[in-house]
Structure formats: structure tokens, C-alpha cells
Model the fold of this input.
Amino acid sequence: MTAAEEQRRKWRELSAGATQPQDVPGYLLHRQTFDSLVGEIAELETLVFRKNLEDSALGELGPYIEALHKDSVTPRRLPRLSEIEAELEKAGIEKMLAGIRTKKPSPEKWASLFDSAWFLSCLDAAFAEDSEIAGFNGRTHDEFVKEFTELDKERIRIAAARVRRACAERAISVMNQHPEQEYLVRAEAQKKRRHLPLRKLFARAQDVLTAVCPCWMASPLSVSQLLDTKACFDVVIFDEASQVLPEDSVPAILRGARLVVAGDSRQLPPTTFFAAGDDDEPIEEAADAATEGFESLLDMTNSFVPSRYLDWHYRSRDESLISFSNHHIYTGRLVTFPGPGGPPAVSHVLVNQPPGLDGQEESSSAEVRKVVELVLEHPQKFPRQSLGVIAMGIRHAQRVQRALDEALETRPDLDAFFDPGKEEHVFVKNLERVQGDERDAIILTIGYGKDRGGKSPGRAIG
Done:
């Protein structure tokens, strides 16, 4: 009540004796004049690139007005700026210009704002022209993806069960057809010792063995020792055929009715660096002619068998891991998939080493120490990610392994991570021995140092 009485007293003082509230004389005219002035100030702000002019004191505007008076460049630009503004409005981006006038972003952001406006307009056009896109619901789509993923996993599980059932039915049928072979295999399975060699057992019970175990896996070099020459499989498949010498593949090829050769001709061919032999030993020309000039089984079969390419690259979780090879080696043919984002998948660590250190041209001691340091840091930074180290040379790989073993002797806290019995244990291998190995993280160490002349060995990279 006291506040209301005080307010009434103030109104009476302002009303100059009037008993009823009255309009302020000339209020509407003054209001129109004020609004017009505010609009002119806002337009002036866009021309002089200064904000909040209406809140500035007159004393603050004096130096600014003087600067504008001395500016002879801006007035000359204004007509052209007005033309550009008219052209942009004619192009249909008046909303963008209005947004720039209202929010007044820095000129450096105008280009990105234009890109955003353009992409949004393209999206609006797509929505208007295509009812399926317009009706797209991201949440529903994600649910479909999730459901498909689960059904796909279930399909794989059911397919495996179907294959096992088909194999079991065929095994029973074959054993019924060859009871003597079934008896021999069961007898050998019950023995505690003095088993028949696999080569002899396979020769006497080939039908049952291949029915009970339809898929056999062996090194090309061990096939002759394990299987009789009469052994015959429906299909013989060579994986990583770019790593198989043509002459080493012959025993396995002879034991199959059909041949499938899989490999990548862009990978390193098999090396004969460790092959032992007498260069003076005579070689029969007829025996060598079939494989002469071919570095691998893949090269040889490519010369007379049509090839089919698998262009979908699925191994790299981040596209940057394969992008260099895809561009320079596969001429962009591979279909790759972008990663989910995050830190770069590829990083470079430069190890400086002064040239001329004798005995280190093929394995830099400074690089060995740095690699061991990175390996020991890995389980602390990424305890759930497996790790592998690939060296360009055998000597360098051996030095890294020895240095790592010595360092681990004083780090019992890392025994679990470096357990060699783990499925994806930490390895240190030279390049020739690493085909097919996969790990979450790989350290590729070059190893080669520089000679006294500051040059790397000529055979360092191949």
C-alpha cells in the first residue's frame, strides 16, 4: 500500500493538476521520428562497419567521424558494394544478406556462410523433388541398420550350422559306402601310440578323411610330405599367391581337380635372399622353362588365366591407411570407407642421427631406442589395442627385439600386455615375414642410417 501511494503521488506531480491520464502531446510524432532515426543509425552501421552507434556517447563519435572524413577509399567502394549486393539479392540469397546485416559476422566467415546456405538450399531442393528423401527419418533408419546387423549376424550363425549339418550328412553317407576306411580311421583315433603316418593313412582312407574333414590347410612345401600323390581334392586354393614361388606350388596343384589362385600382384614377391644352393649346379632347361621369368605363382597364372578383381577394401578402419596406396599403386580403383573421425591414423616420428656411424647403416641405434620407447608407451596409452613392429631389414628387427627384451626385464608391470601366448601378441618382424599379420597399431621402422657421406644405402628401400 505504501508503494502504491507513492506511485500515485508521482503521477499527480507529472499530471500538472489533471484529474485523468492524458496522452503526451506529440508522442506519436516523436515516436515516428525516433524509429526513423534508429533505422538510419542501423543503416549507417552497415556502411561504416561499426556496431552499437546508438549507444555511443557523442564525445566518442567525434574521433570516429573525423576518421571517416579523412577516408577517401570507402566512399569510392560503396557504389560497387551496392551493385554486388543487388546482384546477390537478384541471385536469390537475400536471406543470407539479411542474416549478415542482423548478426554482423566477420567478413572472414562470409564464404563459409555462403557454402552453408548453398548446401541447405540443395537439401531443400532434394526434399522438394524426392518424396523418399523428404520422408527420410534418421532415427528410423538407424533402427533398420541395427536390425539388419543383428539379422546378418544371425544369418552367418545359421549358415555355419547348415554347413556343419551338410558335412555331417555327407560324412555318414561316405562312411556307409566305405566301411573299411571308417574302421581304419576309428582304429587310428583310438590308438595311444604307433599311429600310421598321415601320408599312409590318407592313401588308405582318403574318401572318409576328406568327408570327415572337407577342408585341409597346409603349406605348399609340406603337401608332398603329408599327402600321397594320388590324393585329389575338388578344389585347391592358394591364398597370398604373390608370396609362393611357382616351383613350390606344383605339388599342391597336382592334388586338386580345380585351382583358385588369390593374391595381390602389387605386394612384395617372395624373396630368395635366404635360399641356399650352389650356383654352379647344372639345371635342366626343360624343368626350368615352365616357371622361368615368373617371380610368383600369381604372376605365372596371370599370364594364361583370366583375373577378377576384389575392389572393396574392408581391412583399414581408417581410410587414410590405404589412401596413399590406393592413389599411387591401385590408381584409385579400390572402394574405401571414411573413418569415424578422431586423431590421425598415420603419424610420422623423425629420429635424427648424425651420419657416419660405422655399423649402423642398416640399423640406426637412435631409431632402435626410439622404437622401444614407443612400444613401451603403447600399453599405457592404448591398453586395449594390439601392437606390431615391422622393420625394413632383418638386422634391424633383431636389434629392436633384443633391445625390447632387455627393457622388459625391468618392467614386470607390462608382462600381461606382452604375453606371447595372447591371440594378438606383440611381434617384431622384418618386412618379408609380416604378410597377413593384423594388429590395431603398427610401428613401421625404416632403420637405415647414413654413411660418412650423409647418404642412405642404395638398397635401403628395395
In short: The chain is about 50% helix and 5% strand. Residues 348-445 form one domain.
